[in-house]
């Protein structure tokens, strides 16, 4: 399925991957990214997991991650992140980092030039690109790209739900979708339910909270890479077959959808995106695709890309090394391949938990040469 990569210099790289939590309802993409790399034919590098919580599962998965480290929460800012990464670089060689969570991307974008001077590569969008795909700016982006999207409005007062159906408030109709700027989305059917979800999201993610028109239909997703030129590189498309209570894919099937592909190409061309991304769209009863979200990283279902023969994390490494898009190790994807997510118990020794709690690192430490820091 995938061309052998053993002769490629990046096949020996040491990589760090964030987002390695494995919550059943809403798993981070990092564990799937690490699995794509660890199972890639010819890859001989090491993968390190970078987590935020002691119980992030990727810290303790030796099959996919050779070790792991805790990072400061994104709210701590880019300087705190740089100080922690410098600590890690003093004992690990890291050739590339793949950030996998929305909230951490601004910090990594700020640090990209500094980390490049330390020999650490990343494939990230600019701040401006990141802002253009924010949920409250999707209507403007989609108008330029020629893609349909539901109306969305930021609100900070839950009394909006008592008057939202009035013409002066825009004449919204129930149900609505209440969602956070970074995470969480709930379909609500009346003002009481909407107020409850509003408070829940505001408590977790702050203001504003977003209200979006509800579109009923079949959800289809696309994940791909961009190199900043506007080209859609290595698209893998999926239709959800089963979802969690949060609407996350629990099972999905790879598809070949010309309309979805065309929408992805228009959006990528409009954004000139750099890095991985995921498009979430709904197809209504009339067959029209509506863009719901653009996630600025790999999705949690990215292991399907390996399953269909188009391993996108591997392609990202090749892009970072300077490989032209036309020469990436990407086979034609195989429609019909299905993934089914499952929960798996990890047996963790107490010494490992103590090590992460006390030192912020697992006991599986590297014997690699120390990475030279450049101011």
TrEMBL record:
Looking at the keywords, is ATP-binding present?
Answer: yes
- Which GO molecular function annotation, any one, does this entry have? ATP binding
Residues annotated as domain ATP-grasp: 139-321
So where does this one cross the membrane? none
Q: Which UniProt keywords apply?
A: ATP-binding, Nucleotide-binding
InterPro entries for the chain:
ATP-grasp
Family annotation (Pfam families): ATPgrasp_Ter
What's this protein's name? Carbamoyl-phosphate-synthetase
Which species does this protein come from?
Answer: Allochromatium palmeri
Species classification: Bacteria, Pseudomonadati, Pseudomonadota, Gammaproteobacteria, Chromatiales
């Amino acid at each position: 399925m995938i061309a052998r990569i053993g002769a490629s210099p990046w096949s020996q790289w040491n990589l760090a991957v964030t987002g390695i939590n494995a919550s059943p309802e809403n798993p981070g993409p990092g564990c799937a990214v690490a699995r794509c790399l660890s199972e890639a034919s010819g890859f001989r590098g090491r993968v390190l997991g970078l987590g935020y919580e002691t119980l992030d599962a990727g810290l303790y998965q030796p099959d996919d991650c050779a070790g792991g480290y805790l990072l400061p929460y994104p709210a701590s800012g880019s300087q705190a992140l740089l100080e922690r990464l410098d600590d890690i670089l003093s004992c690990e060689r890291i050739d590339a980092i793949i950030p996998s969570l929305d909230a951490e991307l601004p910090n990594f974008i700020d640090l990209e030039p500094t980390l490049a001077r330390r020999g650490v590569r990343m494939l990230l969008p600019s701040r401006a690109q990141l802002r253009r795909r924010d949920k409250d700016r999707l209507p403007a982006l989609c108008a330029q790209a020629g893609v349909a999207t539901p109306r969305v409005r930021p609100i900070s007062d839950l009394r909006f739900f008592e008057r939202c159906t009035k013409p002066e408030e825009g004449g919204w109709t129930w149900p609505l979708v209440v969602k956070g700027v970074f995470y969480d989305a709930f379909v609500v059917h009346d003002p009481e339910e909407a107020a409850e979800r509003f408070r829940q999201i505001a408590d977790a993610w702050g203001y504003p909270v977003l209200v979006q028109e509800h579109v009923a239909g079949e959800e289809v997703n696309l994940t791909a890479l961009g190199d900043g030129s506007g080209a859609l590189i290595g698209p893998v498309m999926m239709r959800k077959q089963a979802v969690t209570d949060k609407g996350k894919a629990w099972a999905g099937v790879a598809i070949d959808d010309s309309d979805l592909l065309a929408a992805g190409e228009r959006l990528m061309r409009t954004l000139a995106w750099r890095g991985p991304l995921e498009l979430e769209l709904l197809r209504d009863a009339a067959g029209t695709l509506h863009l719901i979200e653009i996630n600025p990283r790999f999705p949690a279902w990215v292991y399907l890309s390996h399953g269909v023969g188009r391993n996108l994390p591997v392609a990202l490494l090749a892009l970072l090394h300077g490989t032209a898009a036309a020469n990436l190790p990407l086979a034609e994807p195989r429609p019909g391949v299905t993934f089914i997510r499952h929960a798996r118990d990890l047996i963790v020794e107490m010494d490992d938990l103590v090590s992460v709690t006390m030192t912020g690192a697992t006991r599986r430490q590297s014997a690699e040469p120390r990475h030279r820091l450049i101011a």
